[in-house]
Amino acid sequence: MIADRHRHLLLWAAAALVMVALPLVFSSGASITMMSLMGFAIIFALSYNMLLGQTGMLSFGHAVYYGLGGFLTAHALNVIGSGKWPVPLPVLPLVGGLAGLSFAIIFGWVSTKRAGTAFAMISLGIGELVAACSLILRGFFGGEGGISTSRTSTLRLFGISFGPQIQVYYLIAAWCLLCMAAMYAFTRTPLGRMCNAVRENPERAEFIGYSTQMVRFIAFCASGFFAGVAGGLAAIHYEIVTSSIVGAVPSGYVLLMAYIGGVAFFIGPIIGAVLMTALQISLSDYTGAWSLYVGLMFVVVVMYAPWGLGGLLLMHQPLLAAGLLKRIGPAYARAAPPVVMLAAAVVLLVETAHHLLVKAVEGSAMRVFWVSYDAKSPLVWGLIVLLFGAGIWALRRVMPGVSDAYHAAAQEAQRLRSR
Amino acid sequence: MLELIIFSSLNGLLYGMLLFLLASGLTLIFSMMGVLNFAHASFYMLGAYFGFQISVYVGYWPGLVLAPLLVGVIGALVERYGLRRVHKHGHVAELLFTFGLAFIIEELVQMIWGRIPVDYRVPELLNFSAFTLFATTYPAFRMFMLLMSVAVFIGLLLLLTRTRVGLIIRAALAHPNMVGALGHNVPLVFMLVFGVGCGLAALAGVIAGPALVTQPAMAASLGPILFVVVVVGGLGSLQGAFVASLLIGMIQTFAVALNVSLADVLARFGFTVTRESMGGDLWMATVAQVAPIIPYLLLVLILIFRPKGLMGDRDT
Amino acid sequence: MSACALQLIDLHKSFGATPIIRGVNLDVHQGERHAIIGPNGAGKSTLFHLISGRFPVTTGQVKLNQEDVTGLAPYLINRRGLSRSFQVTNIFPRLTVFENIRCGVLWSLGYRYSFWHMIERAQDARERTEAILEQINLGSRRSVPAALLSYAEQRALEIGITIAGGAGVIMLDEPTAGMSRSETEHAVALIRKVSEGKTLVIVEHDMSVVFDLADRISVLVYGQVIATDTPAKIRANAAVQEAYLGSASAEAEHA
User: Fold this and answer.
1) Are strands C67-68 and A240-241 parallel, antiparallel or unpaired?
2) pLDDT single digits (tens) B76-102
3) How far apart are alpha carbons A240 and A24 in whole angstroms?
């Protein structure tokens, strides 16, 4: 028991240390910007998982609370700036959080009257409602241009202006750590436990004294609060908020982030947020079809690894603890070539097709992975078909071996542990 | 005024029937398989695009038959090789699969046909005005759209009420598990239902394509309204979907025609409100501008007063 | 005569046009063990659903500790001191056994919708959960996800969740369904233990369990109670015999 508590504190301390040290390791402007983006993406994804992973509520409109938090923070910043109110910047994300909370109370009361698929569709509808309102309420949403703001216009403490990106990074990192801790603590409360119970068996939860609707409603409000904080940080980072922030795109994105990372574990959305942000920034430099890759990755995860990347990693933790990782080495290594073949086939197909269709004006010569070739060459298409066929055939043959190796090692680890 | 009412009624009916064409396929799939096909509007879009492509090579009319068939086959394959695999992970996973599918379809369509609308033309045969009323003409193609939708609706009705297949489908709508226990090849039925549902959506796309804009965003703009229709009508109820489709079709069409704002109404009573007044945006917005959010307002109202939908009785 | 813990007054329930419960009157005394038996399709589970708030009543009244609870939501009835188990095991599959029970104790300990208490610090919750785990003999399986338990263990967990909140009226719906002889014996011992000092209403098909446990038995046939009496008198009751034997002789004819 005591060892557990100490271990937890150590983990949090380590996380804090990592966040502080990261800019020292990756010190370029682009890196610091990317890490800032990861910071509030993590908060957003974790807030989303309070609904999906913890309480079993699938929402397609979570960006409403993120975006409205952002808008209210931007407006607050402008009011503070022009009125010269003595409010320091670090407090502003709280405004976003309170905005998210308020709207979550209003919309949540209506949304949580239904569950499951109906709830998902309602969240979609409310998302569209707010997005459509953004065209009508031009004063609040700023029309096409959005609302611009300046983060250097607030009260400066200790001479920190928050002009330079590195200062913004530390602000985001501090809030990220705070929110992570708060959301984790939430899972360790009676309500947090009942959220899990409602997710597992909403009917039974009613028969042990809990109103499922109330549990869901409170979880919804808490989730809206943290989404609003993330939105506030986004507003501070970008210094502009446009109506696309409440729309279907960020709503879809946070779902992808959380699910690919893994909704069953607290750390899953964190992994998803970091990964997706990194992909979004770096991939888009290399390929115009990066959105398609993300979609394909999502569908693959849904079909073959519904516990997400986080789940895949955590699955191997008992093996690591028992020192049995090398047992699975050979089987996994045998699975690597088919996976690589398939990945190569997909990339070739998407890139070549993309080039032919979208970049047709540039002619048919193109480059992928340091190799230049002609997109219309039948050799390429033959290669794609070959790689696909061979990859699928080989993967089919190898997968049972991988599964067996894992289960054998897992059982062994279980045995060693119960000794 | 009368002209406005007549034309709006026709357009409203048209829009409503189109919505029902889509909502009926969606409801059938949901009722039988328990999965809400998030990609339903995407298959509608595929139908429009396939129809367009076929019309470029061969003409509109072959497209009317071929596009729904093609999309229906694609839908059946998606069910057989995709959805079925996800089935064991539960309804949430199935919904997420169709969500991912919608995402991918939109990306592919953008990649293949580009982001700007394509020129899907009304076929020559129907490119005239059907009638003129008070100096406004009504396109024959719209009459065709209306007739087609009504024909499909009647066809569906007859299929469901007069044929053996229809009986099985209606049974499965009420008690999906029992139908399997009675010895019907449930996986095959699922594949067919999904395929036919997608085919219906594609048919709606081919019908609507030339009249409404055929562009990659058409799925994303129609999708949410479609889901509002099924939730308002009551998830799993065909009659509810019918009523909700017509209701929303009519309300939205009439709303778009009304270029009046609250400020105008207040002005009649002697109050002057401008954009600069408190809450100016709300007063100045005309009903036409507000029209896009009316379905969602209806959704919220239904949730407050009748959460199970107009005719719903099945809980999800 | 002791006060009535549970009273059913002219209870009717129809699904559409089909009447299932057709006028049930029942008084369950405080502290008694009351069994409800009857042929299949008599409406025993439906009766449970009506009492516990799962289904709305068509007409009639349900009184819990003299208070009218007809038509209240399940969680409101549970908070007033009635807890029920399910015929088809209704547990929280991916939560551990410990978690399953702990969720059952939370409301009664006053935690309600708290998100400001740390569950690990909640001594009372832990102690109560441990006590229940002891009673249902699942202490050694506390860290196992409930879905991985054996059938009999799951039924024990089902009972555990039901009694966790300390309700005064416990309703068990066919708790020994699908159990072997020895498992049933254990289950009966468990039920006897946990229902000490409480009011127990139990639906059962296993007659040995019924006659072993019950203070009084009610016989439900086609949605009506045809007899309520002590086990010995029920055994001798002609109408009850006909209801059971009648169906048995009909089966014999078709054989």
Assistant:
1) unpaired
2) 999 999 998 898 888 888 999 999 999
3) 28
Indicate the helix (H) or strand (E) that contains B131: strand B129-133
Judge: C119–A189 Cβ closer than 8 Å, yes or no. Answer: yes
- Whether residue A180 contacts residue A196, with contact meaning beta carbons closer than 8 Å, is answered with no
* Domains present along chain A, CATH in parentheses: 2-300 (1.10.3470), 316-418 (no CATH)
As separate numbers, helices (DSSP H) first and strands (DSSP E) second, chain C gives 9, 10
Distance from CA of A156 to the nearest CA of C (A): 33
B100 close contact with A: CB closer than 8 A: yes
Amino acid of residue A404: D
Residue A258 corresponds to which tokens in the numbers above? 């959380």
In angstroms, what separates the C-alpha of B271 from chain A's closest C-alpha?
21
Instruction: Please count the other Cβ atoms lying within 10 Å of the Cβ belonging to residue A66.
Output: 30
Mark yes or no for CB contact C73/A188 under 8 Å. no
pLDDT confidence of residue C9: 94
Question: Is B182 a domain residue?
Answer: yes
Helix (H) or strand (E) holding B278: none
pLDDT in tens, B235-285: 777 888 899 999 999 988 888 877 777 777 777 777 776 766 666 677 677
Do the beta carbons of residue B42 and residue B36 sit within 8 Å? no
| pLDDT tens readout for residues C154-182 | 999 999 999 999 999 999 999 998 888 88
Q: How many domains does chain B have?
A: 1
Residues of chain A whose pLDDT is less than 50? 1
Which residue among A190, A201, A222 places its CB closest to the CB of C119? A190
- The CA distance from B248 to B227, in Å, is 12
Nearest chain C Cα to A5, which residue? Answer: C120
Q: Which residues contact A204 (CB under 8 A, 6 or more apart)?
A: A197, C86, C90, C91, C92, C161
Which chains have 3 or more CB–CB distances shorter than 8 Å to chain B? A
Average pLDDT of chain C? 90
Give the separation between CA B197 and CA B174, rounded to whole angstroms: 18
| Strand-strand pairing, C33-37 and C216-221 | parallel
Domain that holds residue B211: 2-218
- Pick from A56, A121, A291: CB nearest B227: A121
Tell me if chain A has a CB within 8 Å of the CB of C83.
Answer: yes
| Spatial CA neighbour of B200 closest among B226, B174, B180, B239 | B226
Nearest to B63 by CA among B201, B205, B195: B205
Domain C4-254 sits in which CATH superfamily? P-loop containing nucleotide triphosphate hydrolases (3.40.50.300)
ipTM of the complex: 0.91
Q: Is residue B103 part of a domain?
A: yes
Residue C142, helix vs strand vs coil: coil
Q: Quick check: is B28 in a domain?
A: yes
pLDDT at C255: 47
Cα separation, B153 vs B175, in Å, equals 23
Residue B33 lies in a domain: yes
Q: What is the pLDDT of residues C202-244, one digit of tens each?
A: 999 888 899 889 999 999 998 999 999 999 898 888 888 887 7
Exposed / middle / buried, residue C216 (Cβ in 10 Å: 0-12, 13-18, 19+): middle
Domain boundaries, chain C: 4-254
Contact A303 B297 (CB under 8 A): no
Burial class from Cβ neighbours inside 10 Å (0-12, 13-18, 19+) for residue A388 reads middle
How close is the nearest chain C Cα to the Cα of A198, in Å?
A: 9
Q: Is the pLDDT of residue B59 over 60?
A: yes
DSSP states of A350-418 as a string? HHHHHHHHHSGGG-SEEEETTEEEETT-HHHHHHHHHHHHHHHHHHHHHHHHHHHHHHHHHHHHHHHHH
d(Cα A358, Cα A374) in Å, to the nearest integer?
15
DSSP state of B227: H
Helix (H, G, I), strand (E, B) or coil at A229: helix
